[in-house]
Amino acid sequence: MTNLGIGLIGYAFMGAAHSQAWRSAPRFFELPLHPDLNVLCGRDAEAVTAAADRLGWKETETDWRKLLQRDDVDLVDVCTPGDSHAEIAIAALEAGKHVLCEKPLANTVAEAEAMTAAADAAAAKGIRSMVGFTYRRVPAIGLARKLVADGRIGTIRHVRAQYLQDWIADPEAPLSWRLDKEKAGSGALGDIGAHIVDLTQFITGERITEVSGQLETFVKERPKAAAHSGLSGTASAERGPVTVDDAAVFISRFSGGAVGVFEATRFATGRKNAIRIEINGSASSLSFDFEDMNLLHYYDANEDPETAGFRRILATEPVHPYVGAWWPPGHLLGYEHGFTHQVVDLIAAIAEGKDPAPSFADGLQVQRVLAAVEDSSATRQWQEIPG
Ligand code: SOE
Q1: Could you say which DSSP state residue 326 is in?
Q2: What is the CA(70)–ligand 1 centre distance, in A?
């Protein structure tokens, strides 16, 4: 077996999630290439060294450009805030490195277009790229997509999707980079709305063609953070502006004729990471909530009405996507497994010489939907999504 040298940039929440994925993938899955956790990169030498020890990386760099020059790095995993995705990913692809880039692909459509052009040029030379819409790799989501593809849902009429969190519902919760437009591009819209745009298109196999949206920033000023890690922080005495949306809501049309209702918010008090998707089709319905992520609810409209009803499918059988590599039925999977499945699929694509999904082009299409929601909110008009 050949090795695949990994260089990861960023070591906060996503960096830790990706680290565990690279570590655990070869321990549970038979892989055609073995990922070597060679280099962790971050700007603060002391902090990145401590993170490397904790997360299992052999060496560190403090300049991502140096990471790209290393022969022991075949793949660059970008877990930085969105403002650096385009610059790093394009440079990495041009340096001949495969790239995994966290979502949303970029902060603007123009950046996402440039990244997609670089990815296409690199693919012609056998260099692969993928955007990290991790929730595609939740087994129950994979099952939902299969049921749609197998025709079990019929013609899709309604797509209902919510991504609900509450980590800034407290107006005194401090500012993080996720509340800074310069760093994050947008707020709930890009950070979590991007996931439900991708997931609904992934499950239905249809494209969002048109949107009408509304963005809202409820709390316009917050304490600056004295320290911030993951989704929580400690407040300083100074205050600063929130420059992104706190909540994004929009309705949409899908290419197959379905109508969609979307909601992304960090103000849904009591909802921590509730990704709720319901699909109603002519033959049946599907319903999913990430806070109970091992379950898919399925209603078959052809069943005897006397006993028909939503039934819960526990997506932990070896026949369900990815599950066979883990535990016996009923021994549940969690948040981190999606990240592991993501790198398993990426490694397979690299070894087989195929383009992995979701591609940078898929990330660009999501970016166009996000931009259309912003435009719609600003103009109070429906917006079409080109392409
Ligand atoms: C913060 O809202 C966040 O970490 C997102 O950035 C991730 O994509 C999501 O998986 C969990 O929440």
Answers
A1: S
A2: 30
* Token digits of residue 158: 């309604």
Q: Which of 163, 191, 291 to mutate to test the pocket of ligand 1 (most atoms within 8 A of CB)?
A: 191
Helix residue ranges per DSSP H, the chain = 13-28, 45-55, 64-69, 85-94, 109-123, 139-149, 181-184, 188, 194-204, 335-352, 360-379
**Could you give the ipTM of this predicted complex?**
0.95
85-137 pLDDT, tens digit per residue, is 999 999 999 999 999 999 999 999 999 999 999 999 999 999 999 999 999 99
* Token reading at 286: 């599907």
Q: Quick one: which atom of ligand 1 is closest to the CA of 14?
A: 4
User: Pick from 23, 12, 22: which is nearest to 51 by CA?
Assistant: 12
Predicted TM-score (pTM) of the model is: 0.98
Q: Which domains does the chain have, with CATH numbers?
A: 2-135 (3.40.50.720), 139-292+294-333 (3.30.360.10)
Tokens 């919760």 -> residue: 173
Distance, CA of 321 to CA of 323 (rounded, Å): 6
CB of 246 closer than 8 Å to CB of 219: yes
Nearest to 263 by CA among 135, 378, 164: 164
**How much distance in Å is there from the Cα of 375 to the middle of ligand 1?**
23
Give me the pLDDT at residue 260, please: 98
Band (pLDDT 50/70/90 cuts) for residue 172 is very high
